[in-house]
Write a structure and sequence with these properties.
disordered C terminus; globular; mainly alpha; 2% strand
């Protein structure tokens, strides 16, 4: 991320994608995307197919950098790394990635301010529910339509995403089992074929089973990790970072489709947090001489037979808090 930052700043100011031009002299590269400047700056595409994918991929790691990598370094290094991620991803100047970044910053701040309150996440859910009800009562739009049209750089782009939801959902109902495949999905003749909604895309192309399975694979992982009990305080912080990152992906997935490297990164990060479900469930022993001071220490599996239960061994290893 730090390596991309100077090139991103140069691209934003000079209106020239220097990285793609450099790599194009040696390899086939992505086409330089045409985009209208915003705030007098070029929307940075960098080495990705589109600025929005650059923003999503770079910004997704903000909570991991701040809460995981930043745990064992000085405050100065921690904030410098976090600011680097924030600045780099922001140069995409896309409302979707910026909304995801804002959500991560807010959730990190919320977790820090209310760190002594064990009910802080339930309180947040209550506030979100109250906000949802309030918008539903005072607005003539649905909540997703309200958020899309009021928190977007381009009203035309926001309106197009509303159309994607309406016509895409209708296409799913018209072809519920197998979708349309790679044929034309049901939409007006004048409407482009792009489906800028990851959570709708699979249902439109491959049917409701595909869309449901993709959503369930995401939600079941998140729920399993969320309700894992008995974690060490360090692992709790790692879990918080993971869930914040996934929350940002869920949010931005309603405004863009993930493909190629961005899709691979999303699935990699989703799977990378699943270890939190199993931590402490296998019989493990501490490395001789290792001491626990609120941080994870190296663990090794016991090679000797033991009559103790896995639960007891997990407790002895210090993984269960």
């Amino acid at each position: 991320m730090t390596a991309l930052l100077p090139f991103a700043v140069l691209e934003a100011i000079s209106n020239s994608n220097v990285l793609l031009k450099f790599f194009a002299t040696f390899f086939p590269t992505h086409v330089v995307a045409f985009n209208v400047p915003r705030w007098g700056l070029r929307r940075v595409q960098s080495v990705f197919e589109h600025p929005i994918l650059f923003g999503v991929s770079c910004g997704a790691i903000l909570a991991l950098v701040h809460l995981v990598l930043g745990e064992k370094v000085s405050s100065a290094k921690r904030w410098f790394a976090s600011a680097s991620v924030l600045l780099t991803a922001s140069l995409s100047l896309s409302s979707g990635p910026l909304a995801a970044l804002t959500a991560q910053v807010f959730l990190i701040f919320w977790n820090w301010v209310l760190r002594a309150n064990e009910m802080r996440w339930r309180l947040l859910w209550a506030l979100l529910f109250a906000m949802y009800v309030l918008i539903s009562l005072v607005s003539n739009q649905t909540v997703p339509e309200f958020l899309l049209t009021h928190f977007s750089f381009d009203q035309g782009s926001a309106y197009y995403r509303v159309l994607i939801w309406h016509f895409g959902s209708e296409s799913v109902l018209n072809h519920p089992f197998f979708g349309v495949g790679f044929n034309r999905w049901d939409r007006p003749e004048w409407m482009p074929g792009s489906i800028d909604m990851f959570w709708l895309y699979h249902a439109v192309l491959f049917g409701l089973p595909a869309g449901i399975l993709m959503t369930l694979s995401f939600l079941l992982t998140i729920i399993s990790v969320s309700f894992r009990k008995g974690l060490d305080p360090t692992f709790v912080q790692y879990r918080t970072a993971f869930l914040i990152v996934m929350a940002s992906y869920f949010l931005v997935g309603w405004t863009v489709h993930f493909w190629n490297a961005t899709y691979v990164l999303f699935l990699f990060l989703l799977g990378s947090g699943a270890w939190l479900v199993d931590i402490g469930s296998q019989p493990e022993t501490r490395v001789p001489g290792a001491r626990m001071h609120g941080t994870a220490r190296p663990l090794r599996r016991s090679t000797e037979a033991s009559d103790a239960s896995p639960r007891a061994n997990a407790r002895d290893s210090g993984a269960a808090g």
